[in-house]
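Shape matters. Shown next:

___
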Amino acid sequence: MRGYTGNNFTQPKGYLLLEVILAMGLAAALLSGIFAIATGSMSLAEKVVEEGRYQTRREAFLNFLGRNFEQLPGNAVVELVTQDTSQRFLPTLTIQNAPVSFAFAGQPISAQAIVLTTVPVPSGGVNVVLEYYEEPLLDDEDSLAEDRQEPAGSIILYRDIWRFELRVLDSRTMEWISDWDIQGRLPLQIELNAVFEPNGEEVIHYFWIPPKTNPAALMRSINQQQQGTGTTTTPTPTPGQGGATPSIPGGGTR
C-alpha cells in the first residue's frame, strides 16, 4: 500500500516476488551442489573402504596358501586332479602327511590329510573350500588310503571367486602340468591363476615348495649305514683252552 508525504509517494519496505523466487532458486542450486559433493565424497569413501577390504582379504588368502605350501614336510604326499568342464577348470589338491591341528565345534582335531577343492556357485564363480580328514586319503610308503570318507570339518577360504586354477612345476622336465600324482616327489612350484571378481584383472601367483628331506627315507639311510659299517667283536680264547682266533674275511667288518 502506498502512502503520501506531501506531494511525494513513499515505497514500503519489503521484497518483491521476483526477488524471493530468485533467492530460493539460488539457495536450491547451492544446496544441490553441496548435496552432490557430499554424496560423491561418501561414495568415494565407500569405494576406498571396499577396495581396502578386498585387498586385505585377497592378501590374507594368498598368504595362507603360501605359508602352508612352504611348510610342507619332506614326506608330504601331493595329488592334483583338474576337472575340465565346459566353462572352467576345477582343481582338487590333496595333501597328506602335513600335520594340521584345528578346532571344529569346540573340539581339537588333528588332520591326516587336507583337500583344497573348488565348488561352483549359482553366481557363476566358485567357492574355494578346505576340507580336513582324520584318515589318510592317498597311498604312501607308510599307510594305505581308506575308502573315500566324510571330512571331519571344512571351511570356505574364499567365496565366489571367478577363476581359481592350479598347476604344478615338475622339476625333472621343468614343465607346468595340471595333474600330479607322483609318489615320493613334491612339485617345485605351484602356480595359481585367479580372477577374484567378474571382469577383474588376472592374478598369477607362484608358491615355492622348498626341497626337504623325507624323514622316513633319512632314517632308512641311517639304519643302512649303521648296518653296513657295524663291527663284529671276535671272541678271545680262554687261556689253557688253546685253539686259534677265528678270522673274518675283509678285515673283520661286515
Observations:
- The chain has two helices and eleven strands.
- Confidence is low (pLDDT under 50) at residues 231-254.
